[in-house]
Task: inverse folding
């Protein structure tokens, strides 16, 4: 079993109701949050989604080993969760969680292609049955398209020169090939900065390969309506693009736009914002798990 540590575990579970009911984990991973939900809300039903078949296998074993059987683990993108839940006859749930980070096992296994620290094939697919890989992106996209996605999804200021370097060194076969091309495309000044020089570009390509932001927008638009009264939806994001989408979506659900003090009283918003500011990891958690440093937790409650 993997040693993956669930980020902001206690804080996330603490926001959820304690009542027995139906709970949805949109990003199962290695079942850290799911297991904690079942331990808190005794007798509950769990429905969990993940694109990683290995994660689904490991989590099934872990849940069964801990004595839980009332769960459904589904191999699907969380953007498909609303339609799947409706097909299952589920029209109301008591809690929804989503941890948007790539799990430690995916980063730590070079053959998955997510890591710039381990050499491996240019893959980066969370769902290994998907046709689009990182190798296709870096070797087949036009330079302008590469530059745009690196700038937008990686928030990388040197996107143009990095894209030019990638195209210059085609064909790229491994993650280390990509790292070297990225380094060549960066200025000497930026190479001296703290942090790995390939981090932002790898993030951008991973988002493109997995359609992460489109899926997140769909999920944020459709999943809150499944919450029952008093139900809570909690989302952990790991970079500003994700956090902005979560923040804006939750704000729009909990604030009536255009309400005026001198006008008629507006209809009350159907959700309550539980986190006016995001909940951040403690110093202790960041020391124990450096990957938690960029995590932000936001949540809403159905009134």
Result:
């Amino acid at each position: 079993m993997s040693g993956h540590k669930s980020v902001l575990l206690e804080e996330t579970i603490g926001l959820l109701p304690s009542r027995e009911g139906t709970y949805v984990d949109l990003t199962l991973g290695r079942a850290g949050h799911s297991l904690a939900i079942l331990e808190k809300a005794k007798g509950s039903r769990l429905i969990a989604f993940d694109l990683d078949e290995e994660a689904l296998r490991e989590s099934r074993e872990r849940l069964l080993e801990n004595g839980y059987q009332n769960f459904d683990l589904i191999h699907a993108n969380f953007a498909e969760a609303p339609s799947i839940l409706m097909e299952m006859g589920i029209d109301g749930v008591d809690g929804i969680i989503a941890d948007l980070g790539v799990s430690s096992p995916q980063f730590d296994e070079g053959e998955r292609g997510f890591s710039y620290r381990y050499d491996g094939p240019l893959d980066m697919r969370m769902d290994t049955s998907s046709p689009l890989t990182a190798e296709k992106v870096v070797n087949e996209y036009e330079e302008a398209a590469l530059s745009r996605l690196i700038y937008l999804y990686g928030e990388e200021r040197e996107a143009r020169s990095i894209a030019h370097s990638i195209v210059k060194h085609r064909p790229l076969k491994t993650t280390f090939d990509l790292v070297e091309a990225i380094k060549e495309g960066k200025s000497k000044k930026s190479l001296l900065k703290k942090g790995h020089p390939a981090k932002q570009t790898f993030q951008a390509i991973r988002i493109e390969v997995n359609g992460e932001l489109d899926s997140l927008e769909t999920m944020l638009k459709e999943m809150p309506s499944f919450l029952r009264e008093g139900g809570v939806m909690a989302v952990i994001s790991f970079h500003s693009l994700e956090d902005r989408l979560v923040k804006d979506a939750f704000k729009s659900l909990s604030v009536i736009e255009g309400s005026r003090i001198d006008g008629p009283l507006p209809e009350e918003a159907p959700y309550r914002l539980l986190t006016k500011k995001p909940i951040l990891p403690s110093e202790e958690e960041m020391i124990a798990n450096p990957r938690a440093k960029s995590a932000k937790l936001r949540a809403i409650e159905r009134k």
Remarks:
- The chain has 14 helices and seven strands.
